[in-house]
Amino acid sequence: MFMLISIFEMARGMWTYHTLAYAVKEGTRYAVVHGQNSSSHATYQSICNRIVSAGTGLISQDLAVSFTSGSFTSASSATGPYCAGSSCANGFSTCPTTSWPPSGEDHPGQYITVSAYYPFVSALSMFWPGKTKGLNFKMLTCTGGSTVCLPAASSDAMQY
Predict the structure, then answer these.
(1) How far is CA 56 from the centre of its chain?
(2) Cα-based torsion angle of the residue sequence 106, 67, 79, 116 in order, rounded to the nearest 10 degrees
(3) With 0-12 CB in 10 A as exposed, 13-18 as middle and 19+ as buried, what is 68?
C-alpha cells in the first residue's frame, strides 16, 4: 500500500512541478512581448493572471510570484513575492496593477525573470511518525518546516 501511494504521490508532485514551470514560462512569454514598443504594456497583474490561467490545477492563493529585471549577473530591479490570486492565503500582497518591467528596463534585449514557488503537501506525511493524524488541507505558505515548496523560474529577453 505504501509503494502504491508513493508512486501516485511522486507522479502528482511531478505533474504539479511541470504545471508550475509551464505557467511561469507562459507568464514570461507574455511579458517579453509587452514591452515599451507594444501597444499594451504588461503589468504585474496581467502577468499573474497569465500564470494563473496557464497553471491549471494550481491554487492561485498559494502561488507566490517574484519579478526581476536586469542582466543575469546583476539584477537591477527585483520585486515580490506577490500572491498570484485575487485573495491570498500566503500572507503576501496581491500583484499590483502597475507596469512591469519598469520604464527603462522594458526595451528590446533587456532580460527579465519571472519566478514562483508553490507548496506541495504529500499524502505520505500521514506515514511519518510524530505527525498529526491525517492531513491538513488548509492553505499553506511554504514557510512551514514540513511543507515542500516547488520552485520554478523563467528568463528571457524583451522582444518589443
Answers:
(1) 12
(2) 170
(3) buried
pTM for the whole thing?
Answer: 0.83
How many CA atoms, within 13 angstroms, populate the side-chain half-sphere of residue 136?
10
Query: How far apart, in whole angstroms, are the C-alpha atoms of residue 114 and residue 101?
Result: 11
Please, what is the Cα angle at 132 between 128 and 134, to 5 degrees? 85
Specify the number of domains making up the chain: 1
pLDDT digits 0-9 by tens, 67-96: 998 754 444 567 878 988 887 876 788 999
Which of the pair, 74 or 37, is modelled with greater confidence? 37
- Cell readout for 77 is 530591479
- Across the strands, what pairs with 122? none
* 119: containing domain: 2-157
User: Could you count the other beta carbons within 10 Å of the beta carbon of residue 88?
Assistant: 20
Whole-number Å distance between alpha carbons of 72 and 66: 15
